[in-house]
């Protein structure tokens, strides 16, 4: 970046301050299943955790690093090169209170940017400099903003240093960007910017000369639960520990559900969208004790995306994420 523009940006900050292949679900004996209180965990009672980048998170929709569907309060990672952009697939289950900030988090990257995209890469909103603390050069996606997420579900959260620009397949900018060359004196880097393109993320324009390093993103609104039948239920991303197994994933047209139980049980299976809407009718499956029952779940008529498979017996229920792709 031109040193004069860099200077003007710093000066302005000073002035301004003042989603079927095969799915196999193994259901453990209901006698040893956890109680409904343990399975139905209200979002506010789930302990938030700190999550670290694994290897190098990708910079495209296809390579975004999927985070576990747990309550996350802090996401840490590193921006190792001038063209490094880290994208994470997250599940927002409290969209009204979603926020992301590098201002309060740890890190050495001196001038960050934060971006939120839909799960298929369409722009939602972004920010360069925290409007509450723009001298820090750190970033904030504020909660309750008019441009923020409008529903719960899967999104992609991105972080980079200044001045990386996400573009669509025609190299058009995805977000409204300040024009450094036209009128640098009028630039407001603290604005929260919305989409300027109706298309999805395809690449990045590299104009960065900011200091690289580590980052810490404090997050709210990612609580590890989604509402099903009016209850906040934990999403199981470690299925083996809870009697579930999912492979391979994503899926395409038909899911094969294998049900096992140590005693005779009646189990119901349902498919839900992330907003809690039931997609398929409830199916009741009888599983004789000590046997194995196969059930085929047709998802050929649903759109690509992320869904929830709910298996219940009596008051007990468990939920597993299922991604459908075409």
| Shape field | elongated
Low-confidence sequence ranges: 1-46, 236-243
Beta-strand fraction estimate: 35-45%
Strand order of the largest sheet: 2-4-9-6-7-11
State the CATH class of the largest domain. Mainly Beta
Helix percentage range: under 10%
Determine the oligomeric state from the structure.
single chain
Number of helices: 2
The CATH topology of the largest domain corresponds to Jelly Rolls
Query: How is the biggest beta sheet arranged?
Result: 6 strands, mixed
Radius of gyration over C-alpha positions, nearest whole angstrom: 22 Å
Count of DSSP strands: 21
The CATH architecture assignment of the largest domain turns out to be: Sandwich
Number of domains: 2
Mean pLDDT: 74
Structural class: mainly beta
Q: Termini, distance in Å? A: 42 Å
Series of H and E elements? HHEEEEEEEEEEEEEEEEEEEEE
Give a brief outline of the structure:
By secondary structure, the protein is mainly β. It has helices at about 5-15, 35-40; strands at about 50, 65, 70-80, 85-90, 100, 110-120, 125, 140, 155-160, 165, 190-195, 205, 215-220, 225-230, 230-235, 255-260, 265-275, 285, 290-300, 305-315, 315-325.
Notes on the protein architecture:
Helix content is 6%, strand content 37%. Residues 1-46 and 236-243 have low confidence and may be disordered. By secondary structure, the protein is mainly beta. A six-stranded mixed β-sheet has the order 2-4-9-6-7-11, with no helix packed on it. It has a six-stranded mixed β-sheet with strand order 14-15-21-20-17-18, with no helix packed on it. Strands 1-3-13-5-8 form a five-stranded mixed β-sheet, with no helix packed on it. The chain has two domains: 47-220, Jelly Rolls; 225-324, Immunoglobulin-like (Sandwich), CATH 2.60.40.
């Amino acid at each position: 970046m031109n040193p004069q523009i860099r200077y003007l940006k710093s000066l302005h900050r000073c002035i301004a301050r003042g989603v079927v292949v095969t799915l196999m679900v193994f259901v453990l004996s209901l006698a040893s299943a956890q109680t409904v209180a343990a399975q139905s965990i209200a979002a506010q009672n789930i302990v938030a955790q700190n999550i670290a980048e694994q290897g190098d998170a990708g910079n495209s929709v296809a390579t975004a690093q999927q985070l576990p569907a747990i309550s996350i309060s802090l996401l840490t990672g590193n921006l190792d090169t001038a063209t490094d952009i880290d994208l994470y697939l997250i599940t927002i289950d409290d969209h009204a209170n979603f926020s992301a900030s590098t201002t309060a988090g740890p890190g050495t990257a001196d001038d960050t940017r934060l971006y939120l995209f839909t799960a298929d890469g369409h722009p939602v909103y972004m920010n360069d400099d925290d409007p509450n603390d723009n001298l820090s050069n750190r970033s904030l996606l504020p909660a309750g903003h008019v441009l923020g997420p409008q529903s719960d579900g899967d999104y992609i959260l991105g972080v980079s240093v200044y001045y990386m620009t996400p573009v669509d397949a025609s190299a058009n900018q995805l977000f409204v960007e300040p024009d450094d060359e036209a009128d640098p004196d009028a630039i407001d880097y603290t604005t929260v910017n919305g989409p300027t393109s109706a298309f999805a993320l395809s690449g990045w324009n590299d104009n960065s000369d900011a200091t690289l390093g580590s980052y810490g993103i404090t997050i709210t609104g990612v609580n590890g639960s989604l509402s099903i039948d009016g209850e906040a239920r934990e999403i199981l991303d470690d299925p083996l520990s809870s009697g579930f197994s999912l492979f391979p994933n994503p899926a395409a047209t038909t899911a094969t559900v294998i049900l096992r139980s140590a005693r005779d049980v009646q189990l119901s299976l349902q498919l839900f969208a992330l907003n809690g809407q039931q997609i398929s009718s409830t199916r009741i499956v009888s599983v004789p004790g000590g046997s194995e029952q196969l059930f085929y779940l047709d998802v050929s008529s649903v759109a690509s995306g992320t869904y929830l498979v709910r298996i219940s017996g009596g008051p007990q229920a468990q939920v597993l994420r299922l991604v459908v792709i075409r």
